[in-house]
Write a structure and sequence with these properties.
The chain is of the alpha/beta class. Helices cover about 30% and strands about 30% of the residues. It is elongated, with a radius of gyration of 23 Å.
Length: about 325
């Protein structure tokens, strides 16, 4: 499939479960159907822990959604603990259905449940369909579907695959407030050989900056002066004290690219801490933006050669 990352080599995959989640659907896109063992996990933290402990070779977890933004559990799980690296990303169109046990009519629905992100994306539509009912959170959309099948709730906001998996009927299709939502998932593993540069790559990292004037500007300048575009930047608390933040960011390019490597080395010098989260092929169908001529690899090489001649007294 065009724009999709190549199938990775690990054979044991953990993912945010239970069966029937959007994450499982994304995992099916990331790897070929018969390849590897797939183990659903009850949380993002559990999926990442399975990789760190060696119980899984890789884990697929949600990182951000086009409507609700980033998934804090994934951002914090990658920033803390033993290092993990992203080896691939997957983008999945997200469509929700309202599912119930067979024979249940809309008028008979007294409770509805789903993952908080799903509830946030369907709040207005649920109010129209089920006025006066306060939705309840679950660990995943598929967990909500399983709970409905078990009689714990009357309805679930979930993926169509989950409704089918747990034998539920669909009362309403496409209940999202903003149709066309997309979720980005990342495949993570323990550190090892990186995917080779493709010329259309993305690099992710977390940088901790000190509580000083201009710290964030210094970080951003290291990318700007090299003509490297940032595709995402978000702040997260470090849990140390107010005023000390980590910045999770993605930039265009591969760490093997000279300019990207130089930028990361500069951050290592400027920041209190830098955690490299991987360089991997882009999977969003977009190409890296053109580099300004004065910020190209050739321009930097020419500048280095000029400096060497200057220091040697040749100029």
């Amino acid at each position: 499939m065009p724009g999709m990352p190549p199938s990775p080599s690990p054979s044991r995959f953990a993912y945010l479960g239970p069966e029937g989640t959007f994450t499982e659907a994304a995992l099916s896109r990331a790897i070929t159907a018969p390849e590897g063992r797939r183990d659903p996990q009850p949380s993002v933290a559990a999926a990442l822990a399975a990789v760190r402990s060696g119980d899984a070779d890789a884990a697929l977890v949600p990182l951000e959604n086009s409507v609700e933004g980033s998934v804090p559990a994934t951002m914090d799980g990658l920033a803390d603990g033993e290092p993990l690296v992203i080896t691939a990303e997957v983008f999945l169109d997200v469509a929700f259905v309202l599912a119930v046990r067979p024979g249940t009519a809309l008028a008979g629905v007294g409770s509805v449940a789903s993952h908080p992100h799903a509830l946030a994306q369907t709040g207005r539509r649920l109010t129209e369909l089920l006025p006066g009912i306060s939705p309840l959170p679950t660990t995943s959309t598929a967990a909500a579907a399983a709970a409905v099948a078990a009689g714990e709730f009357d309805a679930a906001v979930c993926a169509a695959i989950a409704a089918e998996r747990y034998g539920l009927d669909v009362l309403a299709d496409d209940v999202a407030d903003h149709p066309g939502a997309v979720t980005r998932f990342v495949l993570v593993s323990r550190p090892g050989p990186l995917p080779a540069p493709t010329g259309n790559d993305k690099t992710s990292l977390v940088a901790v900056v000190g509580d000083r004037t201009g710290a964030l500007l210094e970080l951003l300048q290291e990318f700007a002066v090299r003509g490297i575009s940032l595709t995402r930047i978000e702040s997260r608390p470090t849990r140390q004290r107010l005023g000390v933040y980590s910045f999770s960011l993605d930039c265009e390019g591969h760490v093997a690219d000279p300019r990207v490597g130089e930028a990361l080395a500069a951050l290592h010098r400027l920041c209190d801490d830098v955690r490299f989260l991987g360089s991997y092929p882009r999977a969003d169908g977009r190409e890296n933006r053109p580099v300004r001529p004065e910020s190209s690899d050739a321009a930097f090489a020419d500048a280095d050669a000029w400096l060497a001649r200057l220091r040697a007294g040749e100029i």
